[in-house]
Structure formats: C-alpha cells, structure tokens
Amino acid sequence: MTRYREFRNKARAINPRFGYLPDADRYVLALGQPRHRFNVIGCGVNGQEHIRVTMLEGRAVIHGVYDPNPRSIEGARREYAQFAPPERLVVYDSLEAACHDPAVDGLIIATPNHTHIAVLREAVKSGKHILLEKPMATTLQDAHEIMRLAEGYGAVLQVGLQYRYKPIYVEAIHEALTRRSIGEIKTITILEHREPFLDKVNQWNKFSKYSGGTLVEKCCHYFDLFNLFAQSRPVSVYAAGSQAVNFLDFEYAGERSDVLDNAFVIVTYANGVRANFNLCMFAPMVYEEIVLCGSAGRLKAYENEDFLPAHGPHTGLEVMRGEGGPSRVATPSYPALIEMTGHNGGTYFEHVNFIDRIEGRPTNAATAEEGFWSVVVGVAAETSVRSGQVVDIEALLAQNGIRLDAA
C-alpha cells in the first residue's frame, strides 16, 4: 500500500461516518502501529498543525505537549481528540519534563521565534530527534550557535523550512536543478503578496525584537529558496521597505508595532546569480510567484488564493524553452487531503522527510546550516532597510563574531 493510500485511509478511519465499525472489523480502515513518539513544545496554530500532520502521516504519534498558555493546550487537546481519546495526551508542566521523557524519541519545537534558542539548548540535552520551526533564530549569534550545536549532534536536527515542499517549488526544483530544463540559473525572482500577520499569544509577531523582523520571520522561507536555487552563498544584500499600512496604531504592553509590511530585496551570490524579492503584506489575497531565468529558458510558477467564488487553478507552472526544447504548462498539486493539512501539503512532506531522516533515508530536508543562511539573508535585509546601505555579508558576519570559513 502506498503512503498516500495509508494516509487517505487514516483520514477516513477518523471520520465519524465510520464510527460504527468495531475495531475487530477494521482492515482497510485499521490504524497502524506508529514507530515513533513525539512531543510538541509550543501548541499555537503551528504546533497544532504539527499534531494533526504527525497523526495523519501515521509512522509517528504525538505523545505529549507543553505550552504555558492554557488555551493553546485546549487547542492541542481538540486537535488530538480527532485521532485518539484526549485523556491519552500527556500535558507536561515544564519544558524539562517534555524534553526528557524517555517515552518519546522526537521533539517538535513550535514556540515563538525569540524563544527557540533557549528551548533548543534544553532540547539537545535529551539527544532526541528535533524538528525546529523556522526561523531557527532571530539573531545571527543565536543562529550560528544552533548551527554549531547541530554539527556535533548525534540525532536528526531539522529546520522547518517547509516551503521547499509546496507543489510549485517541488516542481520548480525538479525542473531547474534536476532536469536543468532552463540551463544555468542566472536570475531568481520571488513575489509574495498577502494579508497581514495574524494574531499570536502576546502578539510577539508584531515586534521585530521578538520575531526577528518580517524579513526574518516570514521571508526566511523565500531566502532559503533563493539559496537553494542559486547553489551558492550570498555576498551582498540591498533592501528597501517600510511599515506603510499594517499595525500603524497598534500598541501592546506599552510598545508600538515596528514590523515591515512591504519590501524589495536584492541578493547577489558568489557565483554571479542575482535574486530579487517583492513583499506586500496588505494585499487582498495570498499570492506567491517564482520566476527563474536561465541560459536555456525561463520557469514561472505561482500559487494563488484570491477568495473569489469562481474557482480556477490555484497553482501554475510554465517552462518556456523557445526553440531550445519542449515547453510545458502544468498545475502542480497534491491530493486535496494532503494540501488541506497545511501550507498546501508542505508540512505533510516536511514530516515525511523528518521521519525518513530518522529512519536513515536520504532527504532534501532543511539542515541547520541551510537554516542559518536563510537567517543571514533575512538579517542582512532588515539591516539594509534600516541603514539604507548595501550590506556586505562577510562584514556583517564579522561584526557578529562569525567568520565565513567557520560558518
């Protein structure tokens, strides 16, 4: 049975329509025995998504959760209750207890950005496999420390840069890097137009000192993709941006919001590839687009949710090669059940790859080193917006006590 058929049957098994079946009469709809047990640390919207996807993917089960916010725990219980009796979910009273329970072999960290480093310092003491949400840190020093911790870590330490598993980017990676359909990549353009940040507990995502700034918090996904397609290290970053519309009058605990809601970012790479990013966070839709121009053609892919009643394709992919070879147009997608689990299926395949890595199979999941470089570009972009100057990456790292040859 394929993994998707197992996934589909598990989704059916928890459907109340089939609740009349005694356990002894479940064969196709039998719930398999998981091979791994995970704890989730941080049970907001992302943590609850990890609970759902873990339970649906099937090779692991959520054992317990930790979060100091009671309502987050309530949300975790509701999510868990779709799959198992809620009383089975262990709720820990401390981070240490959640990290070091011998009943589990994996930890999923989905706490606010600025807490990642402190949580991870405790988590690595356990020696357990770790999936750390993006951005892995909010400062270069913390990101560098995490990369160093990962280098000597005896288990999996994966960073949650799951956009590389969205259908449009999976296909773009295949066409551009595996098939090399457009030749050598020369320029990269990514665009994201979307709605403002949603609410969080203590509204930490409205303040750069907690989130790392918009270009770290949200855009590390896209800078990871830049680095992946460029196949090189960034050498300079120039960015312009502002807080033009969102949260201009927003205050919380006596502080005024300071996060960017629009930006343009240009990145130059050591191999000559150039990349540019266009962000608008006060648009009435959710739209992403990537355009790769190479020596032998052009690739464009997009993902769109416009909230209109007329339904057209929500994704698209074009590979244009002119007279150099066949061109094609496609609509990349996963089965609807997978796409509905979160991030158009990206989170599901992030978990597939996490467990594959635990079980010794090769994957292209984001490493701590890749997570570090996505933060580097984001911090450089935030720095450039504030200074109005081009930021030299080597100089920025040196200012933070980090040498390139040591990174």
UniProtKB/TrEMBL annotation:
Span of domain Gfo/Idh/MocA-like oxidoreductase N-terminal: 37-160
InterPro entries in the cross-refs: Gfo-Idh-MocA_inositol_DH (IPR050424), Gfo/Idh/MocA-like_OxRdtase_C (IPR004104), Gfo/Idh/MocA-like_OxRdtase_N (IPR000683), NAD(P)-bd_dom_sf (IPR036291)
One Pfam family here: GFO_IDH_MocA
Domain Gfo/Idh/MocA-like oxidoreductase C-terminal as annotated: residue spans: 175-392
Molecular-function GO terms, alphabetical: nucleotide binding
Family listed: Belongs to the Gfo/Idh/MocA family.
PANTHER family for the chain: INOSITOL 2-DEHYDROGENASE (PTHR43593:SF1), PTHR43593
Protein name: Gfo/Idh/MocA family oxidoreductase
Species of the source: Candidatus Thermofonsia Clade 3 bacterium
